[in-house]
Write a structure and sequence with these properties.
It is a single chain. Residues 384-390 have low confidence and may be disordered. The protein is α+β, with helices and mostly antiparallel strands and 390 residues long. The protein is globular, with a radius of gyration of 22 Å. The chain has helices at residues 18-27, 52-60, 103-111, 212-220, 223-234, 282-299, 308-336, 341-356, 358-370; strands at 8-14, 34-38, 47-51, 70-72, 74-79, 84-88, 98-102, 117-118, 120-126, 131-137, 140-151, 160-177, 184-190, 193-200, 203-210, 241-244, 248-258, 265-267, 273-274. Bound molecules: flavin-adenine dinucleotide (FAD). Residues 14-20, 37-39, 42-43, 46, 48-49, 120-121, 152-155, 157, 170, 172, 207, 250, 269-271, 277, 280-284, 286 line the site of flavin-adenine dinucleotide (FAD).
Length: 390
């Protein structure tokens, strides 16, 4: 029987999520040959807040106009008790600080534009000049040879060196409110974890982080009791909450430093770092991983793709942004998720100071929108109100 030689490509991308698809799309039509390995879509849908920086990446990929989204013009940040600050897009000359869409919507738009090699990555062997992948295709097996394997297969595929279990679960649901405020996103810190309400059509997407025991209780409540509890915690800024859709939960942890044999293999997106959803940073960081990697792949000679020097350069170029995002979200969760009185006072004073100091607010807005790269991979800086954004 004839043995088929596995196809050879420059880059094999394992993962059918938004980050793997974005990388494949950024390379499509170029001289870099790609195999994107993805199985049947299998995920829990959730709302996703994309930063204005992510919109710029999706625009450059030609995918933005088809993604249905809701603009976030203002972000209102508060904690239970005293202290709040407000960020507005007009202060930075932007049309919006970010946008809310559904994970499924984004994946459908990106995946539909890139060819897929059906299957799921089982394992790989890396050598000096190539990496050989073994894929499962139903009952069958297949192979691919590549200069570089990019793991974009999400959080749960392999062990990571650094794990922090936040002992929080995110309850995700859509709710309606009596007095909705179009274009305003709300982030409220509570002793159990942050609560976000994101504008989503005529509803709000709720991402409510609580301790596991409270999550079980909240899931068991009737709709009206759930909404009454939400109002108690969030306050009356939107009036009463009217209805709630199906509720789902996600366990929350910080994971980074994937344990994966290194030669000719690197990880991006959640496979490289999984963050707490506070301040909506995870996917935005993953899209910057994909964008920057694509630029580097498009810039080097083929023989360099996947070589140790290439991997080291990529790791260096992403480390500021990666550890900035990890540190920022971890700091927020750990400092805000408790009820210690002195800390609550300090946090309140911090929020009030942020509100009184526009430059400090702009610094924070810049990090939330464009991340923490050493040099902006999008080649732009956040301007002050007096200057027009390009
Ligand atoms: C409740 C919640 C709210 C969130 N809100 C936000 C937000 O507002 N803003 C934000 O920026 N981020 C947010 N995030 C984080 C965001 O969802 C992730 O950062 C993002 O989905 C990462 O994309 P990814 O493509 O790297 O991984 P994933 O989305 O996990 O996709 C990985 C893909 O790889 C596939 N796969 C797995 N194993 C294999 C294999 N062996 N072979 C082939 N394919 C495989 C999976 O099926 C999946 O399709 C939130 C997360 C949660 C839990």
């Amino acid at each position: 029987m004839a043995v088929l030689e596995p196809p050879e490509v420059d880059v094999a991308i394992a993962g059918g999520g938004p980050v793997g698809c974005a990388l494949a799309l950024a390379l499509s039509g170029s001289a870099v040959s790609v195999a994107r390995i993805a199985g049947e879509a299998d995920f829990a849908d959730r709302p996703i807040a994309l930063s204005y920086g992510s919109r710029m990446i999706l625009e450059r990929l030609g995918a933005w106009n088809s993604v249905r989204s809701n603009p976030i013009e203002t972000i209102h940040v508060s904690q239970q008790g005293f202290g709040r600050t407000v960020m507005r897009c007009v202060d930075y000359g932007l049309p919006a600080l970010g946008y809310v869409t559904a994970y499924s919507e984004l994946v459908a738009q990106l995946a539909g534009r890139t060819p897929v090699s059906a299957g799921s990555l089982r394992d790989w062997k890396s050598a000096d000049s190539e990496v050989v992948l073994r894929l499962s295709r139903g009952e069958k097996e297949a192979g691919v040879r590549a200069r570089l394997l990019v793991l974009a297969d999400g959080a749960h595929s392999r062990m990571t060196r650094h794990v922090r279990d936040y002992r929080q679960q995110a309850i995700v649901a859509e709710v309606t409110a009596e007095h909705p405020r179009g274009g305003v996103a709300w982030e409220r810190f509570t002793a159990e974890g942050p609560l976000a309400l994101l504008p989503f059509g005529d509803r709000y997407a709720l991402v409510w982080s609580v301790r596991p025991a409270s999550a079980a209780l909240l899931l068991g409540l009737s709709d009206s009791d759930f909404l009454a509890r939400l109002r108690e915690i969030f306050g009356g800024r939107l009036g009463n909450f009217g209805s709630v859709g199906p509720r789902s939960t996600f366990p929350l942890s910080l994971r980074h430093g994937a344990i994966a044999p290194a030669p000719r293999v690197l990880a991006i997106g959640n496979a490289a770092q999984t963050l707490h959803p506070v301040a909506g940073q995870g996917l935005n960081l993953g899209l910057r991983d994909a964008w920057e990697l694509a630029q580097m792949l498009l810039d080097v000679a083929k023989e360099e793709i996947g070589a140790p020097r290439f991997l080291a350069r990529y790791a260096r170029s992403r480390s500021f942004d990666r550890y900035g995002g990890i540190g920022f979200t971890d700091f927020l969760v750990r400092i805000f998720s408790n009820s210690l009185a002195p800390l609550a006072l300090a946090r309140g004073a911090g929020l009030a100071a942020l509100d009184a100091l526009p430059p400090a607010r702009r610094f924070l807005a810049h990090r939330m929108i464009f991340g923490f790269p050493k040099r902006s991979c999008l080649g732009i800086e956040l301007r002050s109100r007096s200057k027009k954004f390009p």
